[in-house]
Amino acid sequence: MDTRHRILDEALTLFSEKGYANVFVADIAERVGIKAPSLYKHYKNKQAIFDAIIEEMNRRFLEQAGTLQINGADAVVDAEIYKNISEEQLITLGNDLFLYFLHDDYTRRFRKMLTIEQFHDKGLADVYMKQYVDDPLSYQGMLLGLMVSAGVLQAENVEIMTLHFYAPIYMLLTICDRDPKREAAALKTMEAHIRQFNRLYARDEGLIQDNKKRSQRKTK
Amino acid sequence: MDTRHRILDEALTLFSEKGYANVFVADIAERVGIKAPSLYKHYKNKQAIFDAIIEEMNRRFLEQAGTLQINGADAVVDAEIYKNISEEQLITLGNDLFLYFLHDDYTRRFRKMLTIEQFHDKGLADVYMKQYVDDPLSYQGMLLGLMVSAGVLQAENVEIMTLHFYAPIYMLLTICDRDPKREAAALKTMEAHIRQFNRLYARDEGLIQDNKKRSQRKTK
DNA sequence: CTTGACAGCTAATTCAAATTAGCCTAAAAT
DNA sequence: ATTTTAGGCTAATTTGAATTAGCTGTCAAG
What is this structure's pTM? Predict the structure, then answer.
């Protein structure tokens, strides 16, 4: 990794731990192994380093959206996969999502930085919301919708069902970001959450029919 | 309100919007209607203002704990109230909790400030976790536990049931903190969430018995 | 009525951190 | 072989916000 990128990397680490204003350019430089003035050979000023991080973040998010998120082609593929999903697979889905968000190094530092800096700049709050609230809800809403269509899950209100699936994951994530010691407990809770979600929404074969009729009457 | 308190009040507002480091003592002074140096007649320095806010926050939290939170006496009272709770009352419980957190002016600004400043100081992260994660989960866990005992709710794992109840509320709260325009939508979602929670966990009379037996077999 | 504490002000002062100036070396390009 | 450029350094300089000095008016207590 060249110096230019190492600066971004170390700056991101520091910003995510202490926030932009509490990080000195000398701190960043020291971590990179150079002196502060040398940073200015690579970036116009401190703000430019921050901006470059945001740009890089947007680039990665877009790239990720291309592979992970909704698009015509994937929807068809995903539909096949999730139509006949088992409880274990649902747990895997949740776990993978959780662990990706939690452990991917960039993702994690970006998220922590956004959490700290989001109130300075309305734009950052928007990025945060899109990335950690709206996009996951929309993507998982689509998957759960497919499972409902396939008769795997009950025909309850899908928006709320998705909230019931994702909100606990989101909450566990914010817990772990603040206190990594709680990670092991969070993982156990995650699994119990998904099992219970599955029990609630996908009950026994015998009940599915029954519940479907009842909830069709009730919802809307 | 005397100047000393108005300083705290305006400082809290500013810190909650922009974070400690991005607020100048001159900003605080201006809002109070005095000049920066005059602040020093009331507080030793900027940090002392921040500390006084935290102290005030802790005082209020303790006070609130005394009235709202678990204690032997209340548990008995609450048990009576929640034993025969209806869906509408459950919605009211959720709504009240949500609206209190959302609209109480101190609570809201404290929460936003903690969100921004929590990574500077491990102590603040702890306060945040206690106030917005652990205490609500513990209190609501108790209430839901009572409802399970009373046969109002199914005998599912109460810890997870509580997560299913509170995590969506927590998530909607963080949405509204970041973008108040989404408040109306969040309130609707809140209500739909609780109705669906109720449908899931407290099904029809006829089913309660049935599900109870089944889940006793399943859970641990 | 005068004294002193209180709470405000303007005008310094301080200080830390960002940034610029200007020099040096190595290696890439011509 | 020389010139240029990239990227590093040390030693200023600038900047901007926090804080201190020291003056002033008001009002309550003695």
Answer: 0.87
